[in-house]
Amino acid sequence: MIPENIINKILNEIVAEELIGLTADLVKINSVWDPAAGTSEQPAADLVAAWAQKQGFEVQQDEVAPGRANVIVTWTAGTGTRTLMFEGHTDVVTPGDLAAWHYDPFGAQIVKRRMYGRGTNDTKGNLAAMLIAMAALKRSGVTLAGTIIGGVLCDEEDRMLGVQDFIKRGHADKVTAAVICEPQDGLICTTQKGALRARFIVTGRMSHGAMPLSGLNTAPAVAALINALHTLEEQAAKDPGRDEHLGWPSFTPTVIQAPATGASQLNVMPREAMVLVDIRTIPGQSHPDIINRLNRLATEIEEKTRRAYEQYDQLLGLDRNRNLKVAVEIITDRPCTLTDRDDPVVRASHRASVEVTGKQPVYAGVPGATDGTFLWALKNIPIVTMGAGDRQVPHQVDEWVDLNQLVETAKIYALTALYYLVD
Ligand SMILES: [Zn+2]
Known about the structure:
423 residues, alpha+beta, six-stranded mixed sheet, 10 helices, 18 strands, 37% helix, binds zinc ion
């Protein structure tokens, strides 16, 4: 049992002005990774490192790539075997067309209870909230049975180099649970979709568009491939079916391109065609099984298309070289994640949400991948994704966060750590 006065002491240490100020300082830094424009995460990492040092935390900066740093903020809050990680990223996506914005994307302007700007929602507000939560716990003088690590990571929006570097350097080895600080509108997300992306290359033989029989067109194989992918999606819709939180699994051909590279011309039958497939998975689907299926699909379509050409050539009295090829390469393989509802970190988040909001929390799933995917997949770390911010707003113009919800989030983070490390 944690005395009520300890809880109040911690919550009183969360001061809205300080949280809003730190969020604004971070938003005012353009931390889009854009080497041509000379912007990167580095100034945001430096700001966090200086702030954390001032709080008396142990601070380490790791260079992930030139101009791209992770900041590891550690507070040993007492002796114990548990280590809770808060994860937040410093990079933001491009503001895009500036003329479309009604606010300066790096101005951190406040209108009523909203702060506007790139990263307010995804995820600098939540990054500030997790840091303030750590500081509030430390200032309260509470002793916890373990350690809290703030992983302030770069490159979440692109290749997730930051979290991979964090794991490679051994920082995740002692982490027993993680809170991924991303805009989930106050929901507790215990599951997220997996991503499997593949590139199919169909190789035929180039020819003049007026003399297609002197070449070998890739188009029939592409058509068969698209149909087959839809069949796979239909099968997945039946088994495992729809996930309660994540919705339907999908097999989406997103890019269908011939020639695979170079300029296209109407009177040229290209040698190569490319189909990119974006597959999003839910619990109950196996990535190795899907990869095997895609490999088999490439072989089947190759054979089927060759046979179709053979029959057609017989009809025309031709004897062409029909060595059409279909190859597949896996570009991304990130599994879906699922943390048990009874896991101590989920129980701690639940208790914290009830304590702060006075309401029963709503559980949900994350539609996209986050840095948490790697912690879960490579280190078996149970993860919970939660934070302030409307879920539709990330990456849009006029990005905003509700400041009341942000303050509430910092309180939920602080109590989650308290409950997890006292449990
Ligand atoms: Zn994010």
